[in-house]
Design a protein that fits this description.
- 46% of the residues lie in helices and 14% in strands.
- It is of the alpha+beta class and 383 residues long.
- The longest helix is centred in the first third of the chain and has 26 residues.
- The N and C termini lie far apart (62 Å).
């Protein structure tokens, strides 16, 4: 082991910065693995083509990404096999750097999701972040020989096992319950109407408007400043609007609940003085049918207390009918359930919004006076 204090310090600083970045990125994803899955699905949809065939693998890809980031950070932090983690980090960024450059240029998804919902940064910011981290990896590779080994092999193995147990436990708990930390606007205690408000002095979206006119068979584009107003020799053809600057957007801007009769009951729900229970099943085809009895028990509890109860889904009416038929079977039970009169219980909502509201399918959210007073995964709540 060569000794050089300046290079040892430089290498240790690079190792620590990389470790903290990997750990933070892995941790905020580990407490919300479904969010990472949804983000990967968004990318696969945006890329199109054969990538859409990989959608069923999004969950496994999310678990692998989280485990790799967390373990690299954990092992780096405790100086476990720095040579190995350095080369693994280099391989990681050899893949991620060109990928994030493409994403920054093509902009298929506005938020990269590299830090989950905890820290939202632009695609270009993500690329430059990766440039800096790649530089740190190169520095670490050049100075790792000057960083002395801290633990013996057996201790390093134990540390790695502890790290793997931590990240596995985080993901397993979150999958069974809900994210340990909720970074989204629909967390318990938040008031939805307040987060939907737009300040009077909010900056609006800015658009570049062009007009297409035709004269003597030739089309030409004009702006508001120079279009041929009052000139009858020009014939109007088309108008184009291009967003040049995004204005203020409230944290909640897409919360809308429609009945199967297309009645908007959003504010009926938000202004209710009694608790309103909303069971969220964003995709009925992916709903855990083992929880139907729990949903029915929750429905009867709400009815007995004269509290509104609705099921929100992003699926269409035909899917709702097939879903309820599959549950009821050929005979309609005499027992009143939310599935033998879906027209009174089922409502539609944007599936992306529903996946943002609660990371469970089915999940439950309870609202009173517009404030979220409870939220849980129905599989671990006994009614």
């Amino acid at each position: 082991m060569k000794k050089s204090k300046p290079l040892h310090v430089v290498g240790s600083v690079a190792r620590t910065l990389l470790a903290l970045t990997f750990l933070f990125s892995g941790f905020v994803k580990a407490v919300d693995p479904l969010g990472t899955t949804y983000k990967i699905e968004d990318y696969l949809k945006a890329f199109g083509g054969f990538f859409t065939d990989l959608m069923p693998l999004a969950g496994a890809a999310a678990v692998c990404l989280i485990a790799v980031e967390f373990m690299l950070g954990f092992c780096m932090l405790f100086n476990v096999r720095t040579s190995w983690t350095s080369w693994f980090s280099l391989a990681f960024y050899v893949i991620m750097l060109p990928l994030t450059l493409y994403i920054a240029i093509a902009n298929p998804v506005s938020d990269c999701g590299c830090f989950g919902d905890a820290v939202v940064i632009s695609n270009w910011a993500t690329f430059w972040k990766n440039v800096v981290l790649m530089a740190l990896v190169i520095i670490l590779l050049c100075t790792k020989r000057y960083i002395p080994q801290t633990f013996v092999w057996g201790a390093e193995l134990g540390i790695a096992v502890v790290g793997l147990a931590i990240v596995s436990g985080l993901m397993l708990y979150t999958h069974t319950h809900l994210p340990l930390l909720d970074f989204r606007p629909y967390k318990i205690g938040n008031n939805i109407p307040e987060l939907m408000e737009i300040p009077d002095d909010a900056e609006p979206d800015q658009y570049a408007i062009t007009f297409v006119y035709e004269k003597d068979g030739v089309q030409q584009e004009f702006t508001l400043d120079n279009y041929p107003k009052g000139d009858s020799t020009w014939t109007f053809v088309d108008q184009k609007s291009v967003l040049v600057k995004k204005g203020y957007e409230p944290k909640i801007h897409d919360f809308e609940i429609l009945t199967l009769n297309y009645d908007d009951i959003t504010y009926d729900v938000l202004e209710s003085e009694v608790p309103v229970t909303l069971v969220v099943m964003y995709d009925l085809a992916k709903t855990d049918l083992k929880q139907i009895d729990r949903i029915t028990a929750l429905y009867h509890r709400c009815i007995n207390k004269n509290e509104p109860f609705y099921i929100l889904t992003g699926s269409g009416e035909q899917d709702i009918e097939l879903f309820c038929f599959a549950i009821n079977g050929d005979e309609i039970s005499n027992m009143v359930t939310p599935f033998n009169h879906p027209e009174d219980i089922f409502c539609t909502c944007d599936p992306v919004t529903l996946k943002t509201i609660v990371r469970a399918n089915p999940g439950v959210i309870v609202i009173q006076n517009g404030t979220i007073i409870d939220k849980y995964n129905i599989r671990n709540r006994i009614e």
